[in-house]
């Protein structure tokens, strides 16, 4: 299901960053915050920005929160407010509710009350940065499950000019190159004859171990 309209509760750094990006992507965003100055600032950017206390059911109801496809609860420090706002969005019938958690316990409570996705921005970004620090060629990655990952790896000098048949990560390590992002465009499901060049990015899928072994072999 494609989401079109988003309501964001809490317009701090995290909430406002999500809101601004959604606007850039062409979506409609209602921002709610109890701080008047914050709302004034964001009202120039978001579709609508309103001063309200998101722990008050009537306030959310009168803003028509139930009509939104997706709600983001981006309140962190006030855990009680985060939980109440989440419950209210769920009860009002918002189809998908995503909430920020500041620690594991907060996250577990949010899961118990039925949030669709819990986000730990600082923890997750810390983990990403650590991975990128120890693997300079690793540009980004998505964990598909505890065991499997998709990683974006910059093509190092030692692979430039080589074909996928030469590199052969599937035969050697068990992971596959499912796409090559070249400056001229992306090649999906590349062939064995496709050649890697310096500014390419490989999209690799496999078990965590197989990707790690491939990364080590290319000095990443
Ligand atoms: P960030 O890290 O995103 O900058 P923060 O940690 O500085 O956030 P938080 O306490 O997480 O601050 O609050 C984020 C925003 O949520 C603030 O702008 C705050 O005014 C707003 N907020 C907090 N409680 C409520 C509430 N009950 N209703 C509406 N907005 C709220």
From TrEMBL:
Positions of the RCK C-terminal domain: 136-220
Superkingdom of origin: Bacteria
Domain RCK N-terminal: residue ranges: 3-119
One record GO biological process: potassium ion transport
Family matches, as InterPro entries: NAD(P)-bd_dom_sf, RCK_C, RCK_C_sf, RCK_N, Trk_Ktr_HKT_K-transport
GO-annotated molecular function: monoatomic cation transmembrane transporter activity
Pfam (any one): TrkA_N
SUPFAM superfamilies tied to this protein: NAD(P)-binding Rossmann-fold domains, TrkA C-terminal domain-like
Cross-referenced PROSITE patterns: RCK_C, RCK_N
Protein's name according to its UniProt entry: TrkA family potassium uptake protein
